[in-house]
Amino acid sequence: MKKEKKVWAITLIAFWWLVPNQTNAQQDSVKLYNLNEVVVTATKFPKSQSETGKVLAIIDEDQIKRSAGKDISQLLNEQTGMVINGANSNPGKDKSVYLRGAKNEYTLILLDGIPVNDPSGISGGAYDLRLLPIDQVERIEILKGSQSTLYGTDAIAGVINIITKKGGDRPVGGFGTVSYGSFNSFKGGAGINGTIKIVDYNIGYTRYQTDGISEAKDESGTGNFDIDGFSQNSFQANLGIKPINALVIKPFVRYSDFDGKYDAGAFTDDPLNTYKGKLLNIGANAQYALQKGALNLMYANDNTDRVFDGTYGKSEYKGRFNQAELFFNYDLAKQLQLLAGVSRQTLKMLDTTSVEVDPTVTITSPYLSLFLHNMGGFVMELGARYNNHSKYGDNFTYSFNPSYLIQRQLKLFFNLSTGFKAPSLYQLYGQYGANPDLKPEKSNSIEGGVQWFSPDKKFDIRADAFKRRIEDVIIYGYPTYTNFDEQNDHGLEIEPSVNLSDKIRIRGFYSFVTGEVTNSTGTENNLLRRPKNSFGINAGYQASAKFYLSANLKAFGKRDDQFFNLTTFATDKALLDAYALLDFYAEYKFGDHVKIFIDAKNILNQQYSEVTGYSTLGLNANTGISLKF
Q1: pLDDT, tens digit, 9 for 90 and up, residues 245-289
Q2: Can you tell me the distance from the alpha carbon of 575 to that of 517, in angstroms, rounded to the nearest whole number?
Q3: What is the rounded CA–CA span in Å between residue 141 and residue 138?
Q4: pLDDT, tens digit (0-9, with 9 covering 90-100), for 351-367
């Protein structure tokens, strides 16, 4: 209790310090309230934020450029309603995405609008963020709430759309970044981009390596645990080909490999364990412009390989995923738009030890949405999706999303939607606990809120509340997986933002989430490692056209946890204390081509745990230089 009070006291002190000193003209975090900003994730085709009632957050290009000292998990961990467990543990540790309290596999990750999937994962759905480098990202759109009607399986809590860098506006341009920091961490990246006649291109490579810290926490204090470093190589090539004015074809290839060390478990070192992972992502997007809409074709193939090798042997996981999707949007009338499409996913797990050798399933899904707009501020989306799974059969989802914007100052919105998560290949056919009769997990979500803008556009605030129920939750109960539990979660989010002057901007948030599971033993709170309360404030100061600095504070309340005790071979309960992280960033530009920066994290040197028995980063920093020519 004393430690939690201390954390919240630090939070209030930091809030007092940030408000008068650190703000900016360009928001240094998520741009939530620009009604004219065009987004694509909410509807699959471009729309301004004023024309959708969905809860959407945007991490824009400026913020990505100011995050060279972070990885994707650390950047996402700063956002409202998101906890990336492991984001500030040893850099090579696995990461779990908890969006609005939902477990990891209930958030769908997209790359340029196409799902990225590793079918060899035990739970399926969740993707390894360590294989997605931030240096090749231009923008991130975070869409909250159930989105299965638009995006299919796994989108129960929401969708994170990672949009990669594309071609430049000159025939040949170049860019590069080099940085060095704590734990002997080095990052270097370079690339070229441009546009030549009918072709635009972006090609880049990044190398990141760090000695890291011991993944497991050394309770003895002897310092005998070895450090667990990692290295990463990433390559990306995006092309855009426009053979005629109406047609654009965008092939791409992305490769990333990750090589690191990991420990045996909570409080337990193991110098022999190694982990290797790699992703090969290839495909293409194509769009043909119509007079009142567009026809789109998307295809991607993911090859994901993971190898764990160490004291207790070697385990290999190989997943193969293909997605092909055809959809079009069309203006049926001035007030009515149509979106219609069909997707087909093929998921394959290369495993000779499973009940069925190299099992494969397909999911075929036609979907349809209607959009009412241009009706004096009233907007409504009504959508439905039919899903045919080659193993369990059929299921259906729908969404209903009206909103009303009053004089461009007050926005009211409401969302009612259903979602689903198909059982993973491992749950259906894996070596341990296979159950080919599993049904999909099914969700019902409801949310509503209000968004207000001051007449002078200097202040805005969004507040929303949500409730989510998931039925037929898949659990492992010896000797097999089964549909058994029911999960109920609810929460609220409040997000104010203010411009104090042309150079001053502050954004804050408060998030509350709680939930419980119901099973044969009763009902209990089960949102392990997820705080009920979290608070954040971001502020920056554009001191001049060349000099910019900002600070970001996020505080997490206490959390329940449990861990496997390797001494007693039992699962023990634990309580994780509250903590607050204060980060600082500064950059200085030399003309239009050179920028130096410093990124310092946890400058209060908080001692805390994200996962019981595992280490976290104390005060750490890196500095570097970015070039553009």
Answers
A1: 999 999 999 999 999 999 999 999 999 999 999 999 999 999 999
A2: 19
A3: 10
A4: 999 999 999 999 999 99
Measured in whole angstroms, the distance separating CA 629 from the mean position of its chain's CA atoms is: 31
Structure tokens at 319: 């997943």
CB atoms within 10 A of CB 546: 12
Whether residue 21 is predicted with pLDDT greater than 70 in this model: the reply is: no
13 sits in which H/E element: helix 2-21
CA 588, 591, 594, 599: dihedral to nearest 10 degrees?
A: 10
Phi (first) and psi of residue 167, to 5 degrees: -65, 160
138: left (phi over 0), alpha (psi -120 to 50) or beta: alpha
Q: What DSSP element (H or E) covers 12? A: helix 2-21
How far is it, in rounded angstroms, from Cα 90 to Cα 98?
18
Greatest alpha-carbon pair distance for the chain in Å reads 72
Which structure tokens are listed for 438?
């599993």
Place of tokens 């090798």: 309
Closest CA to 585 of 553, 608, 618, 544: 553
Q: Residue 484, Cβ neighbours under 10 Å: how many?
A: 15
Q: CA nearest 492: which of 554, 444, 442, 450?
A: 450
Residue 501, class by beta-carbon neighbours within 10 Å (0-12 exposed, 13-18 middle, 19+ buried)? exposed
Question: HSE on the CB side for 293, CA within 13 Å?
Answer: 16
Q: How far, in Å, CA of 210 to CA of 2, rounded?
A: 35
Beta-strand relationship, 504-519 and 82-85: unpaired
Could you give phi then psi for residue 209, rounded to 5 degrees? -150, 150
Question: DSSP string covering 397-427, please?
Answer: EEEEEEEEEETTTEEEEEEEEEEEEPPPHHH
d(CA 40, CA 476): 37
Helices (H), 501-626: none
- Tokens 């609005």: give the residue: 100
Could you give the CA distance from residue 481 to residue 36 in angstroms, rounded to a whole number? 47
Overall residue count recorded for the chain in this entry: 629
- 139, 164 contact by CB (below 8 A): no
Residue 109 burial by Cβ neighbours in a 10 Å radius (0-12, 13-18, 19+):
buried
Q: How far apart are the first and last CA of the chain?
A: 54
Token pair listed for 340: 């219609």
pLDDT tens digits, one per residue of 546-570: 999 999 999 999 999 999 998 899 9
Give residue 34's pLDDT: 63
Q: Contact at 8 Å (CB) between 513 and 520?
A: no
User: Helix, strand or coil for residue 169?
Assistant: coil
CA nearest neighbour of 527 among 85, 160, 213: 85
Q: Please, what's the b/e burial string for 457-468 (b: 16 or more CB within 10 A of its CB; e: otherwise)?
A: eebbbbebebeb
Cα–Cα distance measured from residue 394 to residue 629, given in angstroms and rounded to the nearest whole number: 53
DSSP codes, 204-252: EEEEEEE----SB--TT-S--SPP--EEEEEEEEEEEEEEETTEEEEEE
Tell me if 212 sits within 8 A of 230, measured CB to CB. yes
Question: CA distances (Å), 560 to each of 37, 518, 585, 608, in order?
Answer: 39, 17, 32, 14
CB of 319 closer than 8 Å to CB of 121 = yes
- The helix (H) or strand (E) run that includes residue 63 is helix 61-65
Q: What is the per-residue pLDDT across 97-120, written as a single tens digit (0 to 9) for each? A: 999 999 999 999 999 999 999 999
β-pairing, 360-375 vs 38-39, is: unpaired
How far apart are alpha carbons 445 and 399 in whole angstroms? 9
